[in-house]
């Protein structure tokens, strides 16, 4: 039980690191800064999910690191997007433990489409939907810090969408 408690505490600590990175990322109006900070945050999320033995979420979070790097460099590349969607499904199939893995799979698929095919407000709307799925996934894994992190990501993302709309309206 002591080992499990230590692992649980470390998982919560790692999720708080991800929280800080994500809030700063989604508060940014610059897509490049958003992507770079999300790389580091997803390393923390993958580690957190592994500590909670939520293997589909851990695998998809690790894959997201590659996805972000590829989406930044090869935006709108449908072949790479399909490859990443396929990899997401393969990870889910190989590590599947039951219905609790559905939200992580949905988040991975939504995020892949959003990052490869969209930019600006549209991308952030799809990423907000993915964040909602990650909220559920974190709750199912038992991650207090991860649930809080994704909830704050969701809210921060929506606020940034409003800021971007306000900026666009002031230019018109």
Please describe what this structure looks like:
By secondary structure, this protein is mostly helical. 87% of the residues lie in helices and 0% in strands. It has helices at 2-27, 31-51, 55-73, 78-95, 102-117, 120-141, 144-171. α3 runs parallel beside α5, α5 (102-117) runs antiparallel to α6 (120-141) and α6 runs antiparallel to α7 (144-171). The longest helix is centred in the C-terminal third of the chain and has 28 residues, at 144-171. It is globular, with a radius of gyration of 16 Å. The model has no long low-confidence stretch (mean pLDDT 92).
Q: Could you write a compact summary of the structure shown?
A:
The protein has helices at 2-27, 31-51, 55-73, 78-95, 102-117, 120-141, 144-171.
Itemize the secondary structure elements and their pairings:
Blueprint: H1 2-27, H2 31-51, H3 55-73, H4 78-95, H5 102-117, H6 120-141, H7 144-171
Helix pairs in contact: 1-2, 1-7, 2-3, 3-4, 3-5, 4-5, 5-6, 6-7
